[in-house]
Write a structure and sequence with these properties.
By secondary structure, the chain is α+β, with helices and mostly antiparallel strands. It has one helix and six strands.
């Protein structure tokens, strides 16, 4: 009984840690239509994988490619960004919704 309780508490703690992961700082390198490429300022987060949803200032997107410290993503809201902008990338919602 105690083992089950401890496993449940550990699972809740792990889920909470992943859900509240710190945002990753990045700088917009290029914009091509809906495709945005950013350069990461720090370390790449564990959740950043090809196909992962991502939130940023003013929009959401989906990661399509990761190479070294560069992340390329598609977003309908790419027009709210400008080359040179410093943004924070955060783990996005499971399903992308937008206007």
């Amino acid at each position: 009984m105690i083992k089950r309780f401890l496993v449940a508490v550990a699972a809740v703690a792990l889920t909470a840690t992943l859900a509240f992961a710190a945002p990753v700082k990045a700088k917009v390198a290029s914009i091509d239509g809906k495709k945005v490429q950013v350069e990461l300022v720090g370390e790449k987060a564990d959740w950043m994988k090809k196909g992962a949803p991502v939130k940023f200032k003013g929009g959401v997107g989906r990661i399509i490619e990761i190479t070294d410290n560069k992340v390329t993503m598609n977003s309908k809201k790419a027009d709210v960004l400008k080359v040179g902008d410093e943004i924070e990338l955060d783990k996005g919602p499971a399903t992308l919704e937008g206007c």
